């Protein structure tokens, strides 16, 4: 019972630029300084709308009231984004919105006081496409505004390894071509991490170690579904981690892999310039986690903690599913409505590694593990 969300192909050129613009000051489609090609306008076509609070680390970068790139909150005052979003720009002309599904209204809006671009950045295909921005006053943290942690290189080696599923999110266009318009809500897609060699074969470029790549998933959703500078992230050990920064993709249709700046590669530089320390060496589950085990066959479902579900008072809830290699299991969170169950959140990657994050109202819920392809045992870790 996969949800029927489908992303179409997108008309694009090399850079994964912002909604209708890349350069914050000019607010145009012109390439940023040092950029050899025009900016890609990413397009979320039939994408999955994010739930309120599901991506509390996601921020929008704005100039003149218009959104042009995305970013990741890594502390109450620091934002991680792409170098090509802000290179050659007066960063104090930028404002940052957090805590809203809309890029242009709601949530909290802060002005940027200062910023730093990685000194080795010259071109997106060569890596180093990272920058950090400090807002003038701290964001108030809560259920809808919360930073993602920086991973250590050792932690990222397993938590963002090839085959894991990471989530890209942003405000992209809803249809392809020049007639497209920006999405009015934050959208997301789960993408499998692929090797840099496989990525390079698709993109026709050598992919350096400073990049991590996400492939299109089994629903045809590709890495162009989000804005430049935005996050490639997931929950690990009950905590949000950002493993990539949206950087660049294929010309024209952008229907292959997407390259992200590998955050763990630049973590020392980020920490030196922001003071934000990395996390993630511990694999000890948090005390509010619960682990379920079970098995599921192809075309069948398994429910946890059983068909009757559990009572939940409301708040953030996450599920991390792992199953056998070579299988494809999907994870759903269902809520009891009257006498029937309704899907309220889903993770439907092309493997049996699924991560689902949802901000729930009070009610009765249950997990559904669905065997889309193959069969075997699984482990499901719930954190709430």
TrEMBL record:
BP-aspect Gene Ontology terms: proteolysis
Ranges where the record places region Disordered: 272-300
Gene3D superfamilies reported for this sequence: 2.60.120.380, Trypsin-like serine proteases (2.40.10.10)
Domain Peptidase S1: 44-275
A GO MF label: serine-type endopeptidase activity
Signal peptide range: 1-20
Subcellular location: Secreted
GO cellular component terms listed in the entry, alphabetical order: extracellular region
Cited SMART domains: Tryp_SPc
Keyword vocabulary terms for this entry: Disulfide bond, Hydrolase, Protease, Secreted, Serine protease, Signal, Zymogen
InterPro entries referenced in this protein's UniProt entry, alphabetically: Peptidase_C_arc/bac, Peptidase_S1, Peptidase_S1_PA, Peptidase_S1_PA_chymotrypsin, Peptidase_S1A, Trypsin_dom, TRYPSIN_HIS, TRYPSIN_SER
Family annotation (SUPFAM superfamilies): Collagen-binding domain, Trypsin-like serine proteases
Keyword Electron transport: no
PANTHER family in the cross-refs: FI18310P1-RELATED, POLYSERASE-RELATED
Family: Belongs to the peptidase S1 family.
Protein name: Trypsin-like serine protease
Organism for this UniProt entry: Deinococcus arboris
